[in-house]
Input
Amino acid sequence: MTHSGAKTSYDTIVAQCLKDADVSLGKMLNAQSLRVKGKSFAYLGTDGLVVKLPASDVSDLERRDLGKRLVVGKRVMKEWLVVSNAHFDMWSELVAQAQAFVGR
Output
């Protein structure tokens, strides 16, 4: 999928998420992020969709080759997963899981 296709998919997910009164837009790492109750749970990065999930889920998805941990500088983020554009069919489900995880 091209970057513009990824952006279109992400924009559709954002529109759906914003129907929830607890969800808003904010900034994270110079990107527009989805936030629930003021905490970021997903954004579109340069390498794909980035979502916050329990560390065990991130490990499982990484083991299954469905994403990789987010690295910021030299720091590996244990609860953040980058899901490439090749797996865009999973984005909506992962964003919903991230929203539930962060919003609890």
